[in-house]
Amino acid sequence: MPVLPLSLFVALILLYLLARAHIRGEIPPLMRAGIGLCALQAIIIAGNQHYHLTWLGAVQPVTAGAIPALLFTGFLSAARRRLSWGRDSWHFAGPALTFFTAVFATPALDIVIPFLFLSYGSAILIILKDGPDAALQERLEEVGISIRVWRLLGTFLILSAFGDMLIALDYLYGQGHYAPLIHAFSNSLTLLALGLAGLSASTRPVLETSALTTPAGDERHGTDEEIITRLEKLMESGQVYQNPDLTLAQLARKLTLPVKALSGAINRQTGMNVSQFVNGYRIKAACRLLEQPETNVTEAMLASGFQTKSNFNREFKRVTGKSPSAWRAVSNTIS
């Protein structure tokens, strides 16, 4: 009776979940690519170890070396800032180093690949070391992705590094007797965990109840009602929501308020987090644009402050209950 290898089973799970999230528009492109690469890596492992496609052994370390860089840049683009070629092209160095090592110094792969996973996983955790305050620089296009999910992603990258180290130690001191078993379970389960963490980070979370029970703010900065009134005036007159890179810290500076006073007032007065509040204005602006026949959906998305269709479609449905095209059809029928 044919037995499905664990790594191939993991690949099928990831591909199914990835396809479902893609159809629902719940995942940014870079995270989609990172999860897809995790699925591809699981397929490569299965082909190399279980189906005797030995040529995949040369591909396996190169694709493995690309996973941490791709997931990290996905984290940056989803939670921190837009990527730029000049600032972020150096992330190609990791996969390039892996390729060079695989060709010219194969034994050193046991050092290079764990180093990459450990470095990128640690980088995510270091960025998030300030806890909730780490969200201050997050782009408000994103909808309050839980910091716990990003921490899980960083932790799984580090655990993968330790799994690779364990395999190397088995070859060094135990002639590699347990390496295939360690490799199968460690890599497969880690790839599954990375993929699931990436999918969790890319889907809309439920607003945490702690945000709704934030203690009343310091009235030296004004009451919650006064803060919201000032914020609404800024949003309506300055149209700051059109800036796709707008962050909570920038918004607080414009109002000369501490970030905690601003976010707390929004939580208590509206029951929303800051991202949802700002995106509400963006969706209203998009609706006004969609009422104009000459404006297409992509133009409305970009002009209202969104950069990705997945976030735009998700937030549009949250606010209006319909997709942009369905909303336009109903609007045209009414008018």
TrEMBL record:
Keyword ATP-binding recorded: no
Protein name in the entry: AraC family transcriptional regulator
SUPFAM superfamilies: Homeodomain-like
Keyword GTP-binding tagged: no
PANTHER family reported in the protein's UniProt record: ARAC-FAMILY TRANSCRIPTIONAL REGULATOR (PTHR43280:SF29)
SMART domains: HTH_ARAC
Superkingdom of this protein's organism: Bacteria
PROSITE patterns: HTH_ARAC_FAMILY_2
Organism: Aestuariispira insulae
Gene Ontology molecular function, alphabetical: DNA-binding transcription factor activity; sequence-specific DNA binding
Pfam hit, one: HTH_18
